[in-house]
Amino acid sequence: MTGERPLPYGDPEHQAAHQFLVEEAALLDAADYAGWLDLLCDDIRYIMPVRVTTARGAGFDALADMGHFDENLYALRKRVQRLATDHAWTEDPPSRTRHFVSNVRTFPAGAAELRVESSLLLFRSRGDTRPPDLLSAGRTDMLRQTADGYRLARREITVDESVLRTQNLAVFL
Amino acid sequence: MLDLTPIVADVRRGMIPAHIYNDPEIFALERDRLFARAWIFVAHESEIPEPGDYVVRRVLADSFIVARDERGTVRVMFNMCLHRGMQVCRAEMGNASHFRCPYHAWTYRNDGRLAGLPFHDEAYGGEDGFARRGQALLPAPAMDRYNGLIFVSLDPDAPPLRDWLGNFAFYLDLYTRQSEAQVELRGPQRWRVRANWKIGAENFAGDSYHTPHTHASVVDIGLFREPRASKRKEGALYTAGPGAGTTYKLPPGGSFDSQLRYVGYPDEMIPAMRASWSPGQRALVEDSGFMVSAATLFPNLSFVHNWPQIDEAGTVAPFISIRQWQPVSERETEVLSWFAVDASAPEWFKKRSYQAYLMCFGSSGMFEQDDVENWVSITDMAAGSMARRLLLNSRMGLTSADKPIKPPLAGFAGPGTAYQGFGEFNQRHWLGMWSDHLAGASDGGAR
Fold it and tell me: Would the CB atoms of A163 and B214 count as touching at under 8 Å?
């Protein structure tokens, strides 16, 4: 972001935003997806554009009209419901995941919202012998202040690979 | 040294040596005898609509630039510089009038012709030492198109694509020509899975038997009402030309319009479907009462058409995906998954259809997630010594005397042969073509 200064790291709003992301990661690593859904606003938009390799100067490095995710609350709820069934084979046995959240920067964005940028490294191990998968991404979130505290109103995931090296996205980033 | 004869003999009788799903010697034969001859999809014209637009796609290890040149002609060119062999274009997509090699700056027009090389006079003595005229990036040995789908073959003597497609073109139209505007493709999502490429191709060709169990979760959550076993076994499986596919049985007694409405097509799209489809294609929907679902065009291009519920109100939205199982090795496959939609469809429909696609298929799709888990596991298991002693039974639908357990479906309006209910007719059809190629029999592009 050009010129825009993040809130100082000692700022209570930055600290609240950082804590939100860390607590959220703990829920995801514990596979507490119902708890995770509670952190989302009803009008959540959760998107992850497909990244592409383009020439320097092409003016784009992501597809505007194709994502790995482009979700509203209905779609995310269905995904969570599915994982809770007895038939979501891809996560049974479950993956062991670790969401590493770092490089958190918080920017004021209107009266009741914060824009929070972070880096995410997702480690995913399946089975006993398969090589683990890594997904590296940047995230730009909009956190909204509500009566219940901060809630996620929007997340855009900028994945750092054009060709993903994980068998599917049965995980949240 | 691999003895192919007994392997092919077993495959032809529907008993599949398990190791073919993870065997470097088999993979080398597939490269040399199958991918060197067959028609392979590389792109759709809608991905490169304007002059200068290009995408870079592979056929196994060979990288090709698929470009629309300044005159609007689609070109497919081997992406290797004529001089020292650099990959000329290292982006996946973009728009360019020229491609310049980063090594010594040899420069090619977007139709492939060599336009410039530095110091032509000083270094080569001009045209006398190196005749620039007539030099061009190697074109794909054969290139042909159908409904905007661009295919290449590494065999210059490949038969015309339309001849090769044969009766499968009837079904291909149902996915890629819902109006005269044809489809537009978005994507692809690309991801690599540790699975053999054949498994996905076979699955999409005809495995209606896996749906009720593998995809039980999407029924559990009310995302898609059809995949229940009771519904799936009413569907017809068809083989036609180099393709095979699955269908769902539509509600009885419906008209063409009501059946399309049932799967979620809006009234404004139906007249174009009626007009662009033949009487036979319409009859498949209206008289036979079947709607196409998954299909595979040999060897590695698959299609899927489903109609999930995309909101709490139960709105049904259909989507089409085209996907390629691009082999990386005997144990790894790159999946390229496009969302496809009728180009003339209303924008609101395209949006709904896209949402339906993302929920069901592709890198995050709730159907596809469970498929890939299975395919990775099969590939793992196929690597060892015991897999060489195991013949996988792929004879579903046949008696011990090789007779179908029930006759072909009478009154099926589509071409080819169709059976109703579960069976592995389609996988055997696909594996039969695989066997023909590996055994070197003259089939399609074989020399």
Answer: no
For A155, counting Cβ atoms within 10 Å of its Cβ (0-12 exposed, 13-18 middle, 19+ buried), the class is buried
Shortest distance, CA A16 to any CA of chain B (angstroms): 30
CB contact under 8 A, B91 and A53: yes
CATH no., domain B166-438: 3.90.380.10
pLDDT digits (tens, 9 = 90+) for A112-164: 999 999 999 999 999 998 899 999 999 999 999 999 999 999 999 999 999 99
Tokens of A77: 């709820």
User: What are the beta bridge partners of residue B338?
Assistant: B322
Where are the strands (E) in A52-112, listed by range?
Answer: 62-71, 96-108
The number of CA neighbours under 13 Å toward the Cβ of B166 is 15
Q: How confident is residue B227, by pLDDT bands cut at 50, 70 and 90?
A: low
Q: Do B187 and A58 touch (CB under 8 A)?
A: no
Dump pLDDT digits (tens) for B82-95.
999 999 999 999 99
Domains and CATH numbers, chain A: 12-159 (3.10.450.50)
* Contact yes or no for B221 and A66 at CB 8 A: no
Q: What is the pLDDT of residue B446?
A: 37
Which residue ranges make up each domain of chain B?
A: 41-145, 166-438
Query: pLDDT digit string (tens) for B351-381?
Result: 999 999 999 999 999 988 888 889 999 999 9
The fourth-level CATH superfamily of domain B41-145 is: Rieske [2Fe-2S] iron-sulphur domain (2.102.10.10)
Residue of B nearest to A74 (CA): B311
